[in-house]
Specification:
32% helix, Aminopeptidase, 10 helices, alpha+beta
Length: 349
């Protein structure tokens, strides 16, 4: 069955009703699949951001065939995922997972003139789709680990039940420091400029590096607030903000985007107390089924999260693109050294 392949600008997704529906809040599994999130990245990208789209014809009159969209950035080195340092994942989006590899192969043939693609961080199923599809289209493609993602399933528990399973040292810290009454925590569900200024002040005074794109993060928080998805946690001591966390809730999952605390308040453990307050809020009030701690396998996350999964990087080169042969040779070297795979192992997230 022949596919139609075309490119759509991210700023014009609303002009394509099926794309808009596929990438809308409520249809997407999380913020990083949505057109509004990808549009924020595209608006700030130094190079062109676009969707490579493949569609199959419907099998009957007025029927709609399978469709897949791959969000991309065109860079001097080739193609990359339309993503940034805030993204938990990047992946192809489709109406028909059973047709994904066929549709991706059609896109890969169309993208051959670009010669190279470096796409991450991919969930394991989509990494397998892309690796097999690009190879079927004549590319040389491998995958390798990009990040570790910590996550948990609530499994129908309330906060008290889940909290009883946490490490004793963590529970003792929350019990002891909370009993002192020094730190006050609250969770805001609506964007407020004063709260956001407090978040930014805490972040600036923390151990974290300078914020990569504060304007993008603010725009995201405002959009989540308008949709009722914002969960902004603030901890104060004597009214002064000392810890802050940015979460959002969507499709039954709570996403932990950012967290920081002031170093000069560390003795009061405001970050730990605020985390406990937010976990309690999303488990008991929002009734989420899962919580996602994003990329990075920081040791402290193991106290809160029970599971890990790998996010993958696809590297692919088209042998006809001679200017990418040096990178292709390096990739073959990594493959021979056992540092890359043809596809993620089964069962990896």
């Amino acid at each position: 069955m022949a596919c139609r392949v075309y490119h759509a600008e991210l700023a014009q997704v609303q002009d394509h009703p099926r794309l808009a529906a596929l990438m809308a809040r409520g249809a997407a599994a999380g913020p990083f699949d949505r057109a509004d999130w990808l549009g924020l990245i595209a608006a700030r990208a130094p190079s062109r951001a676009f969707l490579a789209v493949a569609e199959e014809p419907g099998l009957a009159a007025h029927a709609e065939g399978a469709m897949l969209a791959l969000p991309l950035l065109a860079t001097p080195q080739g193609l990359a995922a339309c993503t940034n340092w805030y993204s938990f994942w990047a992946r192809p989006l489709t109406t028909a997972p059973d047709r994904a590899e066929v549709l991706l192969a059609a896109i890969a043939r169309d993208l051959a003139p670009h010669g190279a693609i470096d796409f991450a961080p991919l969930p394991a199923p989509e990494a397998g789709w892309m690796a097999r599809a690009f190879r079927a289209a004549g590319w040389i493609a491998t995958v390798e680990p990009a990040h570790i993602n910590r996550h948990m399933s609530v499994q129908g528990q309330d906060f008290a039940q889940w909290w009883s399973t946490r490490p004793g040292a963590l529970r003792a810290t929350v019990r002891r420091k909370g009993a002192r009454g020094v730190v006050e925590c609250r969770v805001a569900t609506r964007f407020d400029p004063t709260d956001w200024a407090a978040y930014e002040a805490v972040y600036a005074a923390s151990w974290k590096p300078a914020e990569g794109d504060p304007a993008l993060l603010r725009a995201f928080a405002q959009a989540e607030s308008a949709a009722g998805a914002l969960r902004l946690g603030l901890a104060t001591i004597d009214g002064a903000p000392v810890a802050a966390q940015l979460w959002s809730v969507e499709h039954g999952t709570a996403f932990i985007h950012k967290l920081a605390h002031r170093d000069d308040a560390r003795a009061a453990s405001p970050g730990t107390l605020l985390s406990a307050a937010l976990f309690a809020h999303v488990i008991d009030h929002d009734r989420v089924a899962a919580i996602d701690f994003g990329t990075g396998d920081d040791p402290y996350k193991a106290d809160w999260m029970d599971h890990t999964r790998t996010r993958w990087r696809l590297r692919a080169h088209h042998p006809a693109a001679w200017r990418h042969w040096p990178a292709l040779a390096r990739g073959l070297g990594r493959r021979l050294a056992g540092r890359t795979l043809l596809a993620p192992p089964p069962g990896d997230g």
